[in-house]
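sorry for the late reply, my laptop died twice this morning and i had to redo everyting from scratch. anyway the thing you sent over, i finally got around to it. pasting the sequence first so we're on the same page, its 228 residues, then the predicted structure underneath. double check i copied it right bc i was rushing
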Amino acid sequence: MEQEVNGILVAAHELKAPLSVLRQLALSFDFEEPAPSLEHIRSEMVSVSERAIKQVNDLTKIARLEDGLFTMEPVSVRAVCDDVTRELDYLFRYNKRELFVKYSNKAKLVTANRDLLHSVVYNFLLNAMHYSGEETRSELCINDCHDKVKISVRDFGPALPMDVWREMKRGWIKKPTSIAMRPGSSGLGLYIASKFSRYMNANVGAVRHRDGTSFFIELPVSTQARLF
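ok and here's the structure:
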């Protein structure tokens, strides 16, 4: 396990430097009269590099989970989801995807780590955006589930392979793997989400539909919320 953690840290640091340079180079482009196409390329370069840096940072967090640095506290689940949807709004619109959001939870606070929960929802939504076709919508829903709050992200893309579904049903993914019928994915986002969910003692899983997949995380209602 220690060798695995050290390997993750080395890979993360090696990747972060060139990605940061790529981002800075894109930002430094200075056109006197920039053509719309060039502005678009620059914007995409910045956007892609920032998303990659975010995943590298998440890998670094995975390597430090055992250090106990990520405090569990009452977290507003709607506020976290609002932050993520604002962050990814441009990406959904640019790729001609529609994101439908529905909050029906009465319990507003959950016990979680805000940064880790943000990454879980972010990776679920990024998966949904990648695996849905143009003009296809994705759904982000929050609802009460017994004594927990459930966040689910539904996409209408290709079916999730049975082996990946079984690992999600078990509660975690051992390592990033390629996902058949879902091109462009190493399963890294799901790996990150499952690791962070497990750290937060949250239930995580997936539901296979005939026309897509739902990924979800169930978090315990905060004891502070119960008092009120």
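The chain has two domains: 2-67, 73-227.
thats about all i looked at so far, will dig more tmrw
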